[in-house]
Each structure stands twice: as structure tokens, then as C-alpha cells.
Amino acid sequence: MSYAELCTMSNFTFLTGASHAEELVERAAKLELDAIAIADRNTFGGIVRGHTVAKALGVKFIVGVRLVLTDNSEILAYPKTREAFGRLTRLLTLGKRRTVKGDCRLELADLLEWGDGSILVALCGPGFSEMVKSLKAAFDRDVFIGLAPRYDGEDASHFVMRAALADEIGVRIVALGDVIMHEGRRIRLADVLSCIREKTTIDRLGRIAQPNAERRLKSEFEMRRLFQAHPSAITNTWEIATACAFSLDELKYEYPDEITGGMAPDERLRQLTEDGLARRYPDGVPLKVRAMVERELTVIADLDYARYFLTVHDVVVFARSKGILCQGRGSAANSVVCYALGVTEASPDMITMVFERFISEARNEPPDIDVDFEHERREEVIQHIYEKYGRDRAGLCSTVVHFRSRRAIREVGKAMGLSEDAVAALSSQVWGWSEEGVTNDRARSAGLDIRDCRLRLALELTKEIIGFPRHLSQHVGGFVITRGRLDELVPIENAAMDDRTVIEWDKDDIDALGMLKIDVLSLGMLTCIRKSYDLIKLWKGERYTLATTPQADPAVYDMICKADTIGVFQIESRAQMNFLPRMRPRNFQDLIAEVAIIRPGPIQGNMVHPYLRRRNGEEEVVYPSEELKEVLERTYGVPLFQEQAMQIAIVAAGFTPTEADALRRALNGFRRQGAVEDFKERFLEGCLARGYDKTFAENCFRQLEGFSSYGFPESHAASFALLVYASSWIKRHHPEVFCCALLNSQPMGFYAPAQIVRDARQHGVSVLPVCAERSYWDNVLEYDADGSLAVRLGFRQIKGFSEEDGHWLASARGNGYRAIDAVWRRAGLSRSALSKLAGADAFADYGLSRRQALWEVAGLGGDKPLPLFEQHGEGLPAIETLLPVMSEAEEVFEDYVSARLTLRAHPVALLRPDLPSFLPTRALRAQPNGGWVSIAGLVITRQRPGTASGVIFITLEDDGATANVIVWPKVFKKFRKEVMTGRLLRIQGRLQREGVVTHIIASRIEDYSILLDALGDPAAGAGVIDPTHDNADEAKRPAPDNRHGAGNTSPHRVSELISLELQRAQHARYGAGARHPREQAKKLFYSRDFH
């Protein structure tokens, strides 16, 4: 006897399926089912995961899909052959491309056209019998009627009616479990998912709730008992399973061949490689490099990867033809062929290349080439790929967006009927992208009663739902390009972004099936560097590229050693800035090590401090053997890179290169249970057999284990180090250019524009405010009064101001506007846009204060000037008014409201009198090591690295400098709220100094964020306008004279209109319902938090 469950939905039927595909297959194996199909609603999204587990467990896996038509008819489809699968993927693509992302519109006629070769099981729908007859006429014996128990007491009569209908039409019946969960205990989660889907609560779910837990996966015995009156329905499940011979293993990826230039792919690749070598080595290719090239080309030819390399080369050539800066990175930098093709820039002279890290003959997996492009111009590259290969042959991989702690708490909390306050209190206890949920202790510390059974259940279900897919998004840049139709391999759908299409599978699915992708990634620093080179060429007449940037500049390394690296690529984090003065890099090899060393691998392997001590001459450099000296000499006997760890496995433990790569993959997220221990035992035994010390062997393996969370190969570090040096060189020699380009490349990096501007000013760069007469959309350079180059802030810095308005304002300026009315008439900006300019103090050149400018904008007529009155104006009659002068604190506050930065006094300087005594950060250098200090400042960054064992790093900024604070877990537990939400903190602790590196070990943390709200509070001043209060403008202004005449609008009416416009402007700038900007202060002084 045999039985196959043909009707299961995984959690890729979003917010319906209550089990992972893997759980369903594993449960089927435990129940000893002969086969299982996963058939999700209008998607093949979960089948790869099910297929992979089924293959490992020896369970027959049937590919299926639950087609839901526009009239709500439901039909299960199972392709019998590879060709039938291709027709179903095209059918799904057709339905998905017709509508918006996440939806699918299919008609019965579509299925009749594309369903050939598939077995179809009709489930339900209006006009059910007519639908089955239509299917029968088209597909004959491949059509069945499904019998699925509803557990409503009427299943017996329902089955009889369905069986009779099947006999009448001449089709067969088949038994279905209609499964949505692998075990009955998931029923609670299934109901919560329904609540989220239906946007309701568990108390109001009603008949949508599962009546029982019977939609679980059942054994053959249970199913035979349910269908004892219809034994053929059970028998037919296995007949269908047997007929469905198609396996996902049959999918064969074929590379595109447009890029061969009419030559054989291997011949074309060799030609391009030789051309590249001639450019890279004009004096002749070194013998070592020649040998590497020949070996690589042989492996590439044996594995038939030439077309892939040619495709990547084609994309890179296109980008450079358009002036788009790009650079390959990752394991591809281990390839001399990639270096010759110009895909990567790390040469064999810079690093030790381990080709097996990139491609392995034994691994039988496609290579993965990552190429970074300027983040603002990557879309040009993406559209080029679509245009060249067509949307039926090219598509972006998807990314599965999962429930994580914070979202899970919010969604489950609402579904369980918790109050908004309770949900907010729970979510506030989550740090970053946590996947741990909220513990009872954390809920209790949030002031909630953990004895409440509803709350406890919500916390339990939150943990269950974490990791469930919520929806599909697009991958950051993973492209799949095929020779034939991509939509015959996988369904394609529209992305949320215009002009983008996405396949249903993510990168793990693609890897599992051996399909090849190109990662077209974006990197903000490439944008910054390219814009810097453009500005240097424009203003200084000097031309630079990454290749021609002057190398080995002592002044650049001096700057790096002082950790003067705000804005510099990769070495601007607090951890890197603390490490730089201790390491003191003096050459490019040092930069490679610097980039790689502050990573989980070396940290968890306890390699950082030995490396430093040996480098600084504080510890003798010892090599375990002469064989390993060649591997470890450049890093002072301490393994820092993945490639070194692989080489150690080869040299010390006797691994082959392929085995060493298998070890790396086992530790790097591709592992199966037990594989790591197997490798560890063999590694240690191999080292001991060759006479190596056990401690050394264990340390090496521990470092390998560290790479499992974030492996960082030397090739990747070298690619990044090139950008580290280039950005450092620009910052050191052209600080005004660097500041301007960095601001124009936001959002990116570790610091907000406020800190970038502050750092530039500390380096002597003059930064000028936004000006309606002088600014453009981008930040620009202009000559200052002393003849030096200054940075003029652009309209892009104004919050909510559109790029289109910025360009209109600049293009219509001519010889200048000289008045707000002229800006309004000539640039055609709306009053909302003008209000944003006025709020940013962009009209200061007109002799207007911020309030006066806002007043004038409010006094304009309609939202746009009427053509008939353009020459004479059409605003309201001017009224002389005496507006109260804004205090410096209010000006600073408004600067943050409009631009999130200020060129005036620092907020801490203004609040110093209101804060308990504290030490200025500049004075910390003079304090004794180990002494107690108190500091205060704005929180500009928070970090909680995964390798720091719960330690949190905070950067505080006052009006003098920044200070680094370390918060140990015990202190964090005591001051959790202050650490997670505080914007202005006062911290007491011990000063700790190591060389020139200083930080504070926090012992007490106080939150003074409420003082920031007072910056924008005008209550201390008299005669304040509250634009949300009717006629407030009349309180302190003189009575108008009688200039209007009897027929004109009364001054009282004028004041009402202006007050109304001020209120509208207020809402536009701060949000509807805001009584005063001080209520929005918490949104202004924000930090950049990293987890």
C-alpha cells in the first residue's frame, strides 16, 4: 500500500501556511509517507526548499502549485515532465506580469492553453462541474476531482456527491489532506496568521478560524480511515505521484552566448584574458602569473564557465563605457582571469590567490562574481541587462523578507488584541534585527503583567512566527541570465519598483539548483569617489582614477594612524578608529590587514591581540614550521584571512585544496549537522600527525569557526582596501571635495550629514548655508571670500524638498531673484516648497530672517501665480509687521527641523547650563587613566556587534569632539531604556586609555533628551507666534494703517489668512497634528544604529 499527500501549503502561501516546507517534508519522512507535494497558492516559491530536504531524506518530492483563478476557482497542478513544468512557470509568469507585485490574475482559458502535460486536480469554484468538463475535454485522463475533508460533519455526503460528479463527467477522484501545518500544535499560529492576513484580532476572527487541528499532515493509516468509503481516492494519490516523474534536478541552466563574438566561448575568453594581461603587464607576464592563468582557464573550460565570465565582462565593459565606476570583489578577486579582464583590481602581487576559494572542480557549483557599481547609477546597468537579454531571459533574484522580532511582536500583538501601548512597550525591548523575541523578564521590565495569559501566549507565538516568510522582495542585485527563456525555469513577477522584474527564488534556491547569477551590487563609496574625481577635475584641473591615485603617500597614512577617518570607507567605525592608532598602518598590505582584522573571524579566533603585539615588537614572531612560514609571514605568524586558513589546512593538516574549501563551506553556513565536528577531528589529527602543536591547531580551527558567521577573504579585503586608500587620499588632500562628494552620495556610511559637515569644518573647510541665490540641488563648491574653495550646501539637504523643485529653482534663477515673490513667479514653486526654503533660512541673502521669510511666503496669493498677473504680482498686500527675533536655540532647532544639521552653535553648547556638570570631550585626553569622569553629548551612533558578547558601543558628540563609550551587558541591563532610546545622554564611568585610544567604561547612564525639546520652545520669549492659534499674529503687531481702502480685504481677514497659511506650512513641515516643533524633537536628533 502506498499514499502520497498531494495538497500541502507551506508558509510560502503567505499568512496561511503555518509550517516551513522543510518541516512538512521532515514530518512526511517521520510518518513514512511515500511522497509529498508542496502546492502553494499561485507560486513555486517553496518547492526548492522542500526538494532539497526531500532529496536528503529519501522522500519522493512532487512539484505542485495551487492555481487560484480570478473567479476563485482552485485547481492543483503537478507537472509530469520538464516541458510541462516550463509551461506552468510561463503560466504563472503570465498571471503575475498582468498585475502588481504579489498578485496573480489567471483565467481558466489560460490554464487550458498552458496546462498540457500536467495532472490537474479540481478543488472548488463557481460553476465547478462546467469547469471540470472543460478540463476533461482538454486534458482527458490527467484531470481529477479532489476530495478534502472539511470536518464539518458532512464529509461523507460531500464525498459521495463529488464521487458521483466524477463518474458523471468521466474523471477520477483523489484524496487530499488540504494541509497547512506539519503538526496540530501549529493551529494557534495558523489562526494568528489568519488574523494578520484579514487585519483583525483573534477575538473577531470568527468562522475564519480553524475549527480544529485536522489540517495537519496525516499518516497513511489516518487518511485511509477517513476515506475508507472511497479507497480508490487513496490509490490514485500514488498513481499521480508515480506519473509525476519530473524533478527539479532536471533544470539545466544554460549561459547566454551573445557575448562570444562569433568565437567559441573558451577561445573568446582566452583572447580577452591575453589582451588584459598585456595591459596589466606591459613588460611581460611573470611566469608565476602565467602558470596561474593557464590553470584557471583549464578549470573554466572543463566546467564550461567561459560564457559566465564573458557575461560579467560584458556588464563591466558597458558600465565603464558610460563612465560608471565599478569594481569586483569577494572570492572573485582570487582569480587572475578576473584581474586580467578588469573585473577585479586586486593583483597577484597584492595577495595570495587561492583559486579554489572561487571555483572548485569537486564542488560542482557555479562561481559567484560580485561587482559593485556606483549606487546612484546602478539602475543604468540593470536596465542595460534587461534591454540586452530581454525580460523573458533576465531577472533579479528575490529576497525572502522574514518576520523578525520587532515586526513579529507588532503583528502578533495586534492579532492577539494587545493594546497599542503594550505592543509598543514590547517592541521597544528589541534591539535591531533581533530574532530572539521578547523574554518574560524583558516584558516584565517594560511594565507588563507577565501573569496575563494572553500576553504569555503572544510572546510564545512571536517566537514561533520569527523566521516565517512575510513576502518576497528583490535581491540587492543578484541577476539570473539564461540562454533560453528564464520564465521556463522559474516564474517571473513585477517588482515594486518600476521597470524591474523578479524571479520567485532567492539566492539560496538558485545555489541549491546550481543556477548561476551575477551580483550587480551598489556601493555608495564608489559614487563618492567618482564624484570626487569629477570635482577635482572641474575645480583643480587634475585627472585621477582609482588606478592613477598617488600611492604610498606618507601623509595619507599619517592621517589614518591618527584615526582621522570620519567618512573614509570601511575604517570609520568606532572599532576601526580605536584600532588604527594601535596598528598604525604604513602601507597597502597593512590596510588589507586592517580591513580584515576587525571582523568576527579574527576576533573569535583570538587573533587580534597576538597580531598587534607581534607587529609592534612586543612579542616574538614564531612560526610552527618552515612550511607554514610562507603562508603566515606577512601576518606575523597569525592567520587573519580565509585563504590562509585554507592554506593551513592544506599544509598543516594534509587537506587537498578541494577538501580545504569544503571545510570552509562547512563552517560558513553551508554545513549539515555533524559536518563541522567531522572536519575538526580530521583537522586536529592531521596537524598532530605532522608534528604541530595542539594549541596551535585548536587556535587555527577556532579562527575557522569564527569565519562561519562572517568570513572575510583576503581577496575581498584587498578590493576594499583599494577604496580605503582612495577615499583616504581624497580626504587628506582635498577635504572640501571629499565633504561635498560625500554629502552628495548620501545616504551611505556610518555618519549622518551633521557629523560629516562638522568634521569638514574641523579640517578648515568653509561650509556655507543653503541659499536660494547660490545653491543647486547638489552640494557644490564655490570660491569663498579668501579665495579658497568652500562647500555650498544644496537643496538636497532640505528635508522634504523635491529634486524637481531644486532644479527648477536653479535653472530659472538667471541673474538672481532678489525677492521671494520673484522666486514664486519665475521658478513656479508651490507655497509648500517655498515654505521649506524659508524654513531652511534659504532667503537670508534677502535680508529676511527665517520668520520674516515664512511670513512673506504665507502672504502670497494662490499656490501658483496666475499668468495674467505675473508682471504685477498677485500676493496679498504687504503688511509691515514686527516679528519677534528667534533665539539662537530656536534657530539651531529650526536648522535641524529643515536640514538635520546646523552651521550655528552645537545643541550641547546651548544646553550646557541646564545639564549637571560634565567634562568636555576635548578634555578627556588630559584625564588620568582609570579616573572617574562624567561626559554628556548627542548620541550619533550605537553599535552592538554580534562578536562583542552583548557589549554596546556608543559615540557621544558635544560641541568640542566625540567620545567613545563602552556599555557592558550588566550596565545595559540596568539602563536599557536610556541606551536604546536616549538622544542626549550624560554618562559616568571610568576612563580607559590604551596608547592614544581613549574610551569611557560606563557605570551610570542618564537620559536628558527632554532638554532637546526645549531648544525649539519659544516660551521664554515674549511675543511668540503660534501658527496653530487663530489670530495669534495680532497679539504683538501694531495695528495696520488704513492703506487698504474701504473695498480691500480687512486687516483682520488678512491676518486670518496668513495664520491659516502658517498653520498649513507647519503641518507640511512637522506633520499634521503637531502643535509645535518641539513635539517633533525626538525625530530630529537621531542616531545611526548598527547591529
Output the CATH class name of one domain. Answer: Alpha Beta
Measured as a percent range, the helix fraction is: 40-55%
Q: State the end-to-end distance.
A: 54 Å
Tally of strands: 23
Protein name: Error-prone DNA polymerase
Organism: Henriciella mobilis
Keywords: Cytoplasm, DNA damage, DNA repair, DNA replication, DNA-directed DNA polymerase, Nucleotidyltransferase, Transferase
Enzyme class: transferase
SSE diagram, text form:
Blueprint: E1 4-5, H1 21-30, E2 35-41, H2 47-57, E3 60-68, E4 74-79, H3 82-97, H4 108-114, E5 118-124, H5 128-139, E6 143-147, H6 155-169, E7 172-175, H7 187-198, H8 220-226, H9 231-243, H10 265-280, H11 287-303, H12 306-321, E8 326-329, H13 336-341, E9 369-374, H14 378-389, E10 394-402, H15 405-415, H16 420-427, H17 440-445, H18 453-465, E11 469-481, E12 492-494, E13 501-506, H19 507-512, E14 517-523, H20 524-540, H21 554-561, H22 574-583, H23 588-597, H24 600-604, H25 608-615, H26 626-632, H27 642-651, H28 657-667, H29 675-689, H30 694-710, H31 714-733, H32 735-744, H33 753-762, E15 767-768, E16 780-783, E17 789-792, H34 803-811, H35 820-827, H36 831-839, H37 850-858, H38 888-899, H39 907-911, E18 932-943, E19 952-957, E20 962-967, H40 969-974, H41 976-981, E21 984-994, E22 997-1007, H42 1010-1015, H43 1051-1070, E23 1088-1090
Parallel strand pairs: 1-2, 2-3, 5-6, 6-7, 9-14, 10-13, 15-17, 18-23, 20-22
Antiparallel strand pairs: 3-4, 4-5, 8-9, 10-11, 11-14, 12-13, 16-17, 18-19, 18-21, 19-20, 21-22
Helix pairs in contact: 1-2, 7-15, 10-12, 15-16, 15-18, 20-31, 20-32, 21-31, 23-31, 26-27, 27-28, 28-30, 29-30, 31-32, 32-33, 36-37, 36-43
